[in-house]
Amino acid sequence: MTTLEIPNIGTFDIELLEEGSGAPLLYLHGYERHPGTAGFLTRLAENRRVLAPEQPGYGRSTGFENFTDVIDVALYHRELLESLGVEDVDVVGHSLGGMFAAELAAIAPQLVRRLVLVNPFGIWLDDEPTLDPFGPAAEVKAAKWHGEAPKDEPTNFVPDPDDPHAAILFSAQNLGSATKFMWPIADRGLRRRLPLIDAPTLVVHGTSDGLLPVSYADEFVRLIPNAELALIDAAGHYPMVEQEDEFVSVVSKFLDA
Amino acid sequence: MKFHWFAEATYDDLPEVFPQRHQSGSVDYPAALVDSARVGANYRMQIRLMQQADRLGWDGLAVNEHHQSTFAMTPSPNLMAASLAGTTENAAILVIGDSLALYNPPVRVAEEMAYLDCLSEGRVIAGFVFGTPMDTAFAYGVPPAELRDRFHEARRLITRAWTEPEPFAFNGTYTKLRYVNTLPRPVQAMPPVWVPGTGSVETWDLVLDENYCYGYLSFFGLANARPIVAGFWDRVEQRGLDPNPYRMAFTQLVCVADTDAEAEARYAEAVRYFFTRQKGAPHYGAPPGYTSQASQREALDRAKGVSPETRLKATRGELSFWEYDELGFIVAGTPERVRQRLRELATELRIGQLITCMHMGNLPEETAAMNNELFGTQVAPYLRDLWADHEDHWTPAVSQHRVAAHAPRIPVPSRQESTR
């Protein structure tokens, strides 16, 4: 557990996955859960120092009640980076973590060297209303994946032999925390702040994402001043899982440029 | 023992195929199935039945709030309460309740309940409800993660709006007001407050901290309620509080007739309609974040009084009329039988406030009026002695006095004298 105390805000005890050494990379996970030591993170850590905190309110990480809105989350990430002695950091944010990463890059542009947004939430298109990410479980599961859902989705969940309800409660807690920023529509005004992002940005998008059509990625690219798009075919909401090689390759290439 | 009249304002003309063809009677039901003129007739019937209940000695008339639902077409309980406050004399106006997180700003609740209290000469019971997941999260778009916080902030604001003598500023997270000076104020300095719950430990502690009445408002009867109600009374005991039965309200569908056979003939179709048309898509029932971790764990660990299979059978209409009765989902039959079963239920659960559901589904008005009359004259008077040794701090003094003076007593008045 890493403890972060922010004056006048509160205390955060968070699980921080740290792997590799070199230039720092902050990875912000998606709305469902932290992926744990997933293959793509290990590979990104081959020549980088990957810092992958669990979001407050997820798993065992606390401090969620200190957030009143998404700006608080951006300021929290700013403080977290400072406490880790990290500046000029590459930031990769997936899904809801993409929304948080974009907010951080808009609010603390001096901290973010390069930004990668992977199937990010955060905006809404009236012409293309999306599926409810909190809808019927089977429907959401089918929408997330291009192919069959993997038997084990990447997770940092650790089963507890003494607690038969642990998995249900873990999932309910994570998604419950996500509702703060995604319910009923995952739009907390990010559109107005995307033009403030200075960092060169790569928007990576699995083209089969039933939760976020490609038009959403296009809109991010349009609104961020210096952004390019990398579409990944045969992948849905988790391109880093369904097309790990291609994902690691396009992200590494962008970060190393 | 107190009795509060209640019915869900269910749309009474959903097609027979409704349960198969449509996944939900709420949130995203097909609006074309509902005829507004018929909705108006349903409302007028419900108001007449409640006016009759007032004359027959019910202690309270209960109205509730639901949104986008064919099962309960009462988006504003305050509106129906207003129809009653001005046209009834004795019974409490039990608004059970306003979904506090859905009013913006929540002083609207303070104003409207105060209006009702003025109009009814001090007969309002203020129900504060969280609101169902369908109402709050789906129909009204409140993030589940914020619902409880919003509810409590609104509750504090409303309480202060009723009780603080001077204008005050309120700087909440969700509501900011420079000048709170609510007009009108309630006739009762502070109306009694009821909070319904579904077994959350936080809600038990809330009602016990604030001396509110707790309502377990389920339509699944004694067996289903047993573990939750026991949990509540355990909590009362743990905290060293007075286990006054009037602290607790419970709902029960009631079907009275002169004979058991007549009860089946008159109510079976409506009971079946009630249980089969209230279908909701499962994910509407449990959005993530709506229930705290502690309460979820409690619910998962708690023994189920009624199995999910039995509930499913009930909502599929696969139970006979007397199976619904045996399970306690309804209490049906002659006045003698209903008296006996309600006495057992109220005694076992230690219920002082019984919310009797006297109309259900597509029941004809004539039958509901008969139900009212038989219950009001031949059931309620025989049960009023229960808990007579406890003082009820949770219904308005005015309605207690007036009902005591006017309610039918034993011996039963003859049919001609009554208000049928």
TrEMBL record, chain A:
Organism field? Geodermatophilus ruber
**Domain of life of the organism in this record?**
Bacteria
Query: Could you list the residue ranges forming a coiled coil in this record?
Result: none
Name of this chain's protein: Pimeloyl-ACP methyl ester carboxylesterase
GO: which molecular function terms? Answer: catalytic activity
The UniProt entry, under Gene3D superfamilies, shows:
alpha/beta hydrolase (3.40.50.1820)
Pfam families from the UniProt entry: Abhydrolase_6
| Occurrences of domain AB hydrolase-1 (ranges) | 25-249
Automatic annotation (TrEMBL), chain B:
Q: Name one Pfam family in it.
A: Bac_luciferase
Domain (Luciferase-like): residue spans on this chain: 35-346
- GO cellular component terms attached to this protein's record: cytosol
Q: Name one GO molecular function term.
A: monooxygenase activity
Q: Which InterPro entries match?
A: Bact_Lucif_Oxidored, Luciferase-like_dom, Luciferase-like_sf
Q: Provide the alphabetized UniProt keywords.
A: Monooxygenase, Oxidoreductase
The name on file for this protein is: Flavin-dependent oxidoreductase, luciferase family (Includes alkanesulfonate monooxygenase SsuD and methylene tetrahydromethanopterin reductase)
